[in-house]
Amino acid sequence: MGATANSPLDVVKAAYAAFGAGNVPGILELAAEDVDWAFIGAKGLPYTGKFRGRSAVEKWFAAVFATDEVQAFEPREFLAAAEHVTVLGWEKTRALPDGKVFEAEWVHVFTVRGGRVARFWGMYDTQAAAAART
């Protein structure tokens, strides 16, 4: 069964397409005003933690881009059920500013309501990310 127009799967895939194009405003447009955003990552990173609302998520993306240079980012598997979409993926990233490269598998869980991302929860291989910063 394919995704319907504006289905949660469509919204999530559109967010990844915007990310791939470096279009953060496009991602924010797909988020609810009061989006609940959480990311589990290596301790001490500015993008690890909980964030609420579009402006906080915009700052979250700025922190990601200031801290990491994403060289490859691949959402590989989409698991959709009702308003939830879980995505399994992989990335190759250079930790800034020292330039160590790490590869990590990640998982992102989205809740989409009314055509907007209401909640995002993500995590990646924190050991690989931490090792790139030591």
UniProtKB/TrEMBL annotation:
<protein>
    <recommendedName>
        <fullName>SnoaL-like domain-containing protein</fullName>
    </recommendedName>
</protein>
<dbReference type="InterPro" id="IPR032710">
    <property type="entry name" value="NTF2-like_dom_sf"/>
</dbReference>
<dbReference type="Pfam" id="PF12680">
    <property type="entry name" value="SnoaL_2"/>
</dbReference>
<feature type="domain" description="SnoaL-like">
    <location>
        <begin position="12"/>
        <end position="119"/>
    </location>
</feature>
<dbReference type="InterPro" id="IPR037401">
    <property type="entry name" value="SnoaL-like"/>
</dbReference>
